[in-house]
């Protein structure tokens, strides 16, 4: 009996890596051991005098994606104590026990690295098999008794008896030695016990027709016959459709033939029997068999396409201490709605039977090895989808949640504040705003009630000696865990034509099915990103029908703040008239001197109305094609060219053209659908031969922004003339609710490009700019001419964070020139400059060392022509060569090293853009990076009192005189007892000369608005001093501004004619007063809008050209000084080297805070206010 049962064993389970639904799973299992093998391994001879021990078989990867990777470092990550430190041999085989060397596939192995098989190296369309490997370790390097020879007993089987009868239950165990004749396998492997079957139940089911079946779950009528036909949505026959009888356990009845018909005998025609009609990628149809007294009847089923699931709630990053609990949540929508969820930890499936999860995963009593990435996966009839990964950060019970020591962070000092040790920079410290473990309640929620981040917990006030005055500064001295700063993320921009820049006026902006905004007269829009959004998908609809409806996936700054996007839109092609009863041909892609990329063939009688009726008559057809051979169209690409594969992974596409189709009746009042439309793709236009095999038709889902497969292409040769024979790829499609289509190839050769943006050409870490949009156009080179791009294949964008941006791009490790890319960056709609490549090629400035930089062939766009804009560069995206030190540290990262790219330190190689710095300077006593709202600190002296609302104020100052001068605003506390006389900050700006009036220049100068401070308890009217730097005197003050200040007490008195002092108004006054005020969720946006109004001299307009004689608040007259009469500020600005050895420089030092000197400011006929002042 024992031998018989052993002979029936026909499968094995790999140690530590059993499979459930094709996924790796975390639960204990058993494995076979070869003859003579001790538990867990086998001692064999290796060489003449050495012995070794084989490990168990490991299988941690599947051949999807790029291939099958059984890497030693990954195996150690999951099974650290099951592999020796230095194995000296590796053996691989398939899951069907075929040795790797006998499969005929190209594989690689190394005892130090493991085993790997790459799909792209296999012949034809073959992919790698699923391999398992084991390692040969030195004798004694593995535990010999860590596992017994027998597996655990299985659960008792179900009772073999029928109801109320006696039977037997059996349980078994397996001997882990592979040879069943081994003497150690002679013990009992099977046990049995008597049992009684389940109680008999009476079938209470009754049938109006026929009889009840043996399972008592449906009625049967032997003399009845059901005929059926199944059609696709466009009416075409649906072959291979499975028809089930709906019951407790659905029973397969039949499958439809090539004509979509089926025949089922024995189904009762009682009006109660329900059939399930199933076809992959279509919704399951439920059909009730009609009641009939005849012996037969028929049904017609029209299938409806299922919508792939998409994630509506993403799991969130969490931080916990060891021993605490955590909950991750995931929700998805689709048609039909997905019901089952699977959760993964570090790409390994968590056993549903152990963790008892559904849409939420609860982990209690956390251990340190549970830290890492978690994501969910769910499926429906159309496919699968995976959520974004959520990071669980775990720290030990007694560890500090944040690094208490601030990082170094340099701010720039005013031009007249040079320091001996640090020059014009000062280290104020900074705390990284990472997620940390704060005070939590006991409940386990999807979203923590209060989010905690590392931030500044202690600050110290220091004073810096400048030229003639002291400058207070607050320096971070300690970091701690505290409540995260609440911020709002905003996306704004313009929607314009890609060719002429014509705005899409008063168009609609949709988020899903909801209209959330409209564009303005200039095509502008502004949208607050909903909380919890991970992927922002917006659709822009032109009400005037000039432009093609455009769906965009817009990256945004998840830390808050505004990001500007310019939406490039394609004009609709003029409609042509077609006859619905005749075959019509429409070319896709009209390039001078080149053939069309493809042709649409619309057979006769293809159009039908929305109600399904065939349409006969004239058809107005507008087909707009986005031709990738025109590089200027890349920014107008729809969505972000991604799709979700059958495993739920989001993967990129490489396009060969997109087209939008609109069909209406002759009166253009009703939209028409079309079925069985053919696309003939000229294979000569596909320059990469490997792409012809993978070419598919795709349609865009406007709700998810993802492309979904419509059909495949097959080869079709057609002779166009006696002398020409061309090869075409032919695909079929139907045109229903979706009107945007794509000729695309999935492309798995992917990398990331590391980009950083800066405020100036100094390229300092503290001057990095966040919120800049970096875009990459992937190019396909003409064979033999790497610098002459033939077409673009993909357009990607990313937003810079405090650590730059990683932008995806196609790359190749065999041929560095296989893919090249244009890279550009913009901030607030303003293009940033790339580092020059000529006349001097400076790797230190570019940010990439040699010789890798030469391999990448970096060239700025003006490399050969200095008249070309300097706002982009081009590189060959050469994938880094493994084990080459110069290429292992950026700026190109393999796709699987995305995390390394994101966290790469500043000194790692990267490409750079910078903003052409204007003549302005901002200084805050409490340091704050306007590009990073999370850097805001609670303090009474903070320039911006609230991190979710930023109010910018500007005053317009006119200068009468022959020279441009610097104008400074010195902003101090005015009426609040906690800040009176203390400095908020300084703003410097240089006046702009009027081109028509040589003796006139104008400055728009920022000052701190009056209002509530951060505690929101009391108003402070900021004391603002406006000081032209030079030989100046005040000529006049705007009469309306003067009257307002006099009528709103108290009033600051102006005894010094070289400057102007005021207590800033509380009200947003406007251009008639020369004051410009704007409030926004983003500080940079508020300042930009207010500055535009100030330049324009209006309260609602905007200009980038200074209008120097309108909307003025103050007028000064400034005369040019001799060189010996220049101010310290001007001297330092013009000739800073003169002060390198001056006595003044020796006296500049950092002082401790001293007590304020209080001065009485008096005025005639108005109340006075006591204001502490520092020396100017």
From TrEMBL:
Any matching Pfam family: CILP_8th
Signal peptide (residue range): 1-22
Subcellular location: Secreted, Extracellular space, Extracellular matrix
Key words of the record: Extracellular matrix, Glycoprotein, Secreted, Signal
Primary location: secreted
Cited SMART domains: IG, IGc2, TSP1
Domain Ig-like: 309-393
InterPro entries reported for this sequence: Carb-bd-like_fold, CILP-1/2_8th, CILP-1/2_b-sand_dom2, CILP-1/2_C, CILP-1/2_dom, CILP1/CILP2, Ig-like_dom, Ig-like_dom_sf
Protein name, UniProt field: Cartilage intermediate layer protein 1
Source species of the chain: Gekko japonicus (Schlegel's Japanese gecko)
Name of the gene: CILP
């Amino acid at each position: 009996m024992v031998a018989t049962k052993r002979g029936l064993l026909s499968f094995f389970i790999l140690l530590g890596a059993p499979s459930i639904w094709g996924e790796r799973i975390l639960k204990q299992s058993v494995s076979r051991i070869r003859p003579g093998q001790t538990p867990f391994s086998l001692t064999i001879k290796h060489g003449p005098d050495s012995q070794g021990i084989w490990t168990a078989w490991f299988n941690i990867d599947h051949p999807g994606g790029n291939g099958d990777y059984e890497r030693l470092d990954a195996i150690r990550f999951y099974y650290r104590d099951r592999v020796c430190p230095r194995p000296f041999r590796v053996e691989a085989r398939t899951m069907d026990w075929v040795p790797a060397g006998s499969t005929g596939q190209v594989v690689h192995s190394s005892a130090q690295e493991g085993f790997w098989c790459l799909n792209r190296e296999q012949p034809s369309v073959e992919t790698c098999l699923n391999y398992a490997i084991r390692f040969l370790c030195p004798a004694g390097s593995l535990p010999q008794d860590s596992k017994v020879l027998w597996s655990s007993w299985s659960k008792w089987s179900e009772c073999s008896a029928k109801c109320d009868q006696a039977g037997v239950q059996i349980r078994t165990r397996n001997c882990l030695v592979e040879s069943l004749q081994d003497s150690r396998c002679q013990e009992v492997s099977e046990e049995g016990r008597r049992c009684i079957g389940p109680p008999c139940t009476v079938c209470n089911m009754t049938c109006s027709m026929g009889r009840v079946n043996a399972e008592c779950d449906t009625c049967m009528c032997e003399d009845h016959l059901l005929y059926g036909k199944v059609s696709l949505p466009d009416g075409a026959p649906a072959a291979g459709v499975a028809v089930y009888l709906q019951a407790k356990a659905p029973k397969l009845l039949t499958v439809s033939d090539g004509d979509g018909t089926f025949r089922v005998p024995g189904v009762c025609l009682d009006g109660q029997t329900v059939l399930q009609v199933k076809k992959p990628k279509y919704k399951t149809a439920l059909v009730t068999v009609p009641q009939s007294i005849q012996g037969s009847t028929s049904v017609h089923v029209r299938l409806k396409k299922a919508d792939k699931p998409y994630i509506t709630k993403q799991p969130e990053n969490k931080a916990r201490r060891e021993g605490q609990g955590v909950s991750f949540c995931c929700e998805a929508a689709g048609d039909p709605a997905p019901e089952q969820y699977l959760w993964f930890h570090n790409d390994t499936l968590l056993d549903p039977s152990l963790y008892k999860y559904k849409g939420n995963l609860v982990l209690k009593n956390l251990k340190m090895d549970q830290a890492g990435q978690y994501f969910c996966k769910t499926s429906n009839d159309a496919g699968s989808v995976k959520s974004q990964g959520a990071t669980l950060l775990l720290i030990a019970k007694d560890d500090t949640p944040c690094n208490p020591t601030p990082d170094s962070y340099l701010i720039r000092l005013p031009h007249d504040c040079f320091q001996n040790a640090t020059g014009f920079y000062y280290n104020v410290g900074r705390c990284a705003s990472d997620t940390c473990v704060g005070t939590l309640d006991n409940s386990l929620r999807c979203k923590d009630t209060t989010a905690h981040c590392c931030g500044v917990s202690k600050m110290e006030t220091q004073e810096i000696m400048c030229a003639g005055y002291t400058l207070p500064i607050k320096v971070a001295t300690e970091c701690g865990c505290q409540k995260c700063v609440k911020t709002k993320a905003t996306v704004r921009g313009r929607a314009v034509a890609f060719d002429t820049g014509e705005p899409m006026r008063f168009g609609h902006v949709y988020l899903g099915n909801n209209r959330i905004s409209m564009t303005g007269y200039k095509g502008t829009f502004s949208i607050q990103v909903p909380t919890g959004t991970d992927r922002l998908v917006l659709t822009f609809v032109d009400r005037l029908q000039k432009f093609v409806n455009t769906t965009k996936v817009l990256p945004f700054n998840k830390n808050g703040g505004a990001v500007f996007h310019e939406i490039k839109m394609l004009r609709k092609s003029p409609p042509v008239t077609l006859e619905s009863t005749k075959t019509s041909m429409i070319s896709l892609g009209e390039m001078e001197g080149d053939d069309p990329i493809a042709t649409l063939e619309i057979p006769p009688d293809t159009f039908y109305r929305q109600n399904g009726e065939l349409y006969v008559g004239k058809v107005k057809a507008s087909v707009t094609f986005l031709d990738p051979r025109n590089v200027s169209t890349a920014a107008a690409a729809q969505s972000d060219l991604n799709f979700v594969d059958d495993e739920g992974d989001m993967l990129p596409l490489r396009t060969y053209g997109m087209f939008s189709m609109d069909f209406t009746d002759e009166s253009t009042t009703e939209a028409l659908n079309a079925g069985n439309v053919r696309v003939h793709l000229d294979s000569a236009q596909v320059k990469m031969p490997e792409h012809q095999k993978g070419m598919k038709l795709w349609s865009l889902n406007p709700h998810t922004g993802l492309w979904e497969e419509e059909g495949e292409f097959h080869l079709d040769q057609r002779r166009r003339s006696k002398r020409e024979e061309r090869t075409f790829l032919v695909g079929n499609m139907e045109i229903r609710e979706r009107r945007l289509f794509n000729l695309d190839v999935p492309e798995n050769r992917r990398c990331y490009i590391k980009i950083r943006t800066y405020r100036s050409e100094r390229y300092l870490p503290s001057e990095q700019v966040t919120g800049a949009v970096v875009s990459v156009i992937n190019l396909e080179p003409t064979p033999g001419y790497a610098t002459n791009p033939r077409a673009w294949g993909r357009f990607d964008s990313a937003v810079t964070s405090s650590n730059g941006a990683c932008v995806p791009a196609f790359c190749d490790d065999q041929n560095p020139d296989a893919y090249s890319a244009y890279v550009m960056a913009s901030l607030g709609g303003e293009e940033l400059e790339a580092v020059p490549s000529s006349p001097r090629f400076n790797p230190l400035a570019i940010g990439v060392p040699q010789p890798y930089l030469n391999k990448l062939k970096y060239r700025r766009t003006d490399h050969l022509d200095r008249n070309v804009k300097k706002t982009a560069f081009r590189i060959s995206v050469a994938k880094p060569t493994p084990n080459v030190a110069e290429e292992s540290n950026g700026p190109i990262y393999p796709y699987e090293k995305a995390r390394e790219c994101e966290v790469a330190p500043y000194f790692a190689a990267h490409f750079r853009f910078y903003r052409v710095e204007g003549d302005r300077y901002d200084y805050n006593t409490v340091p704050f990076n306007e590009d990073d709202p999370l850097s805001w600190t609670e303090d009474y002296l903070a320039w911006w009192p609230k991190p979710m609302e930023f109010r910018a104020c500007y005053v317009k100052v006119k200068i009468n005189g022959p020279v441009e001068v610097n104008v400074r605003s010195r902003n101090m506390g005015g009426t609040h007892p906690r800040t009176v006389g203390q400095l908020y900050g300084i703003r410097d700006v240089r006046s702009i000369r009027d081109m028509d009036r040589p003796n006139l220049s104008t400055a728009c100068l920022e000052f701190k608005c009056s209002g509530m401070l951060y505690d929101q308890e009391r108003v402070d009217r900021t004391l603002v001093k406006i000081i032209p730097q030079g030989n100046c005197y005040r000529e006049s003050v705007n009469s309306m501004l003067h009257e307002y200040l006099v009528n709103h007490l108290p009033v600051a008195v102006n005894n010094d004619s070289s400057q102007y002092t005021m207590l800033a108004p509380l009200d947003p006054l406007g251009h008639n007063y020369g004051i410009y005020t704007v409030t926004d969720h983003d500080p940079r946006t508020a300042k930009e809008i207010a500055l535009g109004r100030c330049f324009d001299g209006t309260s609602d307009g905007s200009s980038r050209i200074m209008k120097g004689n309108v909307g003025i608040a103050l007028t000064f007259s400034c005369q040019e000084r001799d060189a010996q009469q220049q101010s310290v500020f001007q001297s330092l600005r013009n000739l800073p080297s003169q002060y390198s050895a001056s006595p003044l420089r020796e006296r500049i030092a950092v002082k401790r805070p001293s007590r304020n000197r209080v001065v009485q400011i008096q005025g005639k006929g108005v109340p006075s206010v006591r204001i502490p002042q520092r020396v100017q």
